[in-house]
Design brief:
Elements lengths: L25 H4 L4 H16 L1 H24 L12 H12 L6 H9 L8 E5 L11 H10 L3 E5 L18 E3 L6
Parallel strand pairs: 1-2, 2-3
Helix pairs in contact: 2-3, 5-6
Amino acid sequence: MNQTRPAYSEYGCLWPLDKDVVFLNHGSFGACPKRILDKQQAYRKQLEAQPVRFFIREMEEMFDRSRKDAARFVNAAPEDLVFVQNATTGVKLVEAVYDFPVASADVIVEAILEKVTSHTRIALIDHITSATALVQPVETIVKALDAKGVDTMIDGAHALGSNALDLAVTPFPAHQDRCPTV
């Protein structure tokens, strides 16, 4: 099969991306432009040269200046803007302010069961949701899905160390977790 490779953008030279790869995903893992990388390195050098001065005297002023620039760019008041590490942190911040409560574990279980069809074979459930840190009622979910003939895979990426996890007491069909090394 003969595939035509897309033309390399005239803006491609602004990023340190591999020229032999057609990079399509700037949404999930966007590369930084070279100019930004250079500025980041300059800030790191400034920080490393005088850490106390940087954190005590310089950093807040730089944030204020950046907030004012960003506010002008989006036509907002600087005091209405806040910098966060990433989109997930921003979502968590808003959720914390607005407090999105779940009335009961039954609401979660029912929401999952509503999506089960005759074609459902396995359900992947977060033990603790990454966006909201909500601890799911996984024992109840597993039992309810099992009653419908649906296997369950529990994604426990945030559970180990956060919850009491006793697989002998609650034997999940499948439970994956990450175990960081010290």
